Amino acid sequence: MGRTDATQSSANETQSRKADHLRVCLEDDVEFRETTSGLEAYHFTHTCLPDLNRDEIDISTTFLNKALAAPILISSMTGGTDLAKRINCRLAAIAQQYHLAMGVGSQRVAIENPAVADTFAIRAIAPDALLFANLGAVQLNYRYGIDECIKAVEILEADALILHLNPLQEAVQAKGDTNFRGLLDKIAIVCDTLPVPVIAKEVGNGISAVMADKLIAAGVAAIDVAGAGGTSWAKVEGRRAQDPKQRRLGATFADWGIPTADCITGLRHIAPFTPLIASGGLRNGLDIAKAIALGADLAGLALPFLQAANESETALHTLVDILKAEITTALFCTGTATLAQLKRSDALAKRT
Predict the structure, then answer these.
(1) How many CB atoms lie under 10 A from the CB of residue 3?
(2) How far apart are CA 285 and CA 299, in angstroms?
(3) What is the pLDDT of residues 72-130, one digit of tens each?
(4) What backbone torsions phi and psi does residue 29 show, to the nearest 5 degrees?
(5) Is 167 in contact with 176 (CB distance < 8 Å)?
């Protein structure tokens, strides 16, 4: 098989995998079975007499020097298929209207097959939104380099590039890319060379404080901990696997990972000022408020947005309105008027 044929075959496999991921996530139970985000272990102290007017509460924030109306990230999900294009376009319209941040799924499929690049090209729909391009860091060990990283950014006209870290997913995935040796040095080169900030992100198994410290030293501008408790990509890959061994791996490691709350507190202990995204099992505005109170700057949700985007534009509007109302209510009932005040307060405590 020649290089062109091999590249086309890889592109076809990647595109098929993208379609499988959407199907499995929308149709199957893909969430962790027992491991949770850890956020349920925390509770807010109720303030029965807040010295506030709820209508004046401000949940706006900034991230990577860009203003956002709420601390909500539409987390990286998809691209590369017709359904993915429709979902990304709907999500982009919501990000623009509500002044939210948004990431896209891995753009490897667009690098391998430029014909599907338009499934990620959402800047025209969201001209003012904070947009994150996305590639798997492990691809830096599989012939990818700075040119591919720049291409991913250019396709999206992105404000930053996510390099996602997914060793467990690759281990369970049939024909997964599992050579992670030496990646930290290559990530450092990308951070030093790329004209936009680099965000290191797990995909649902968490980033420990030790690993966060190494990534920050390598030059990443922000970290998305993407902890355990939400979608289990070991479970997703196990469900789509044809090989019994891979199916067994997916089932065995379906609950593997560091809970999101532990990732947030661990990272904040060693890096109090690094821009931090909390994702992994966040399902409502109360989860978002808890994540912010623990030290996150932004909170990412994927599955709730995917389900709503697949349903309708109206469902997306409803979801965002509810999330904003829930965040605002959490601030109101803790007597805090802004996200900064919530972070500085002692309103959040761990259950004993």
Answers:
(1) 7
(2) 9
(3) 999 999 999 999 999 999 999 999 999 999 999 999 999 999 999 999 999 999 999 99
(4) -80, 105
(5) no
Compute the distance between CA of residue 68 and CA of residue 130 in angstroms, rounded to an integer.
8
Task: Find where tokens 């965040």 sit.
Answer: 327
Is the pTM here over 0.85, yes or no? yes
In angstroms, the first-to-last Cα distance of the chain is 62
Which residues are bridge partners to 72 per DSSP?
299
Contacts of 165 (CB under 8 A, 6+ apart): 137, 138, 200, 201, 202, 203, 207
Residues flagged as binding site for Mg(2+): 170
Ordered by start, the domain boundaries in the chain are 6-350
Determine contact, residues 102/324, Cβ cutoff 8 Å.
no
pLDDT confidence of residue 12: 63
Residue numbers in the known binding site are 17-18, 75-78, 106-108, 134, 169-170, 201, 231, 281-283, 302-303
Binding-site members for FMN are 75-78, 106, 134, 201, 231, 281-283, 302-303
Rounded Cα distance between 157 and 123, Å, is: 6
Q: Which of 226, 335, 258, 255 is nearest to 289 (CA)?
A: 335
Q: What is the CATH T-level fold of the domain 6-350, as seen in this structure?
A: TIM Barrel (3.20.20)
Whole-angstrom Cα distance, residue 321 to residue 135? 30
Which residues carry a binding-site annotation for substrate?
Answer: 17-18, 106-108, 169
Neighbours of 332 (CB within 10 A): 18
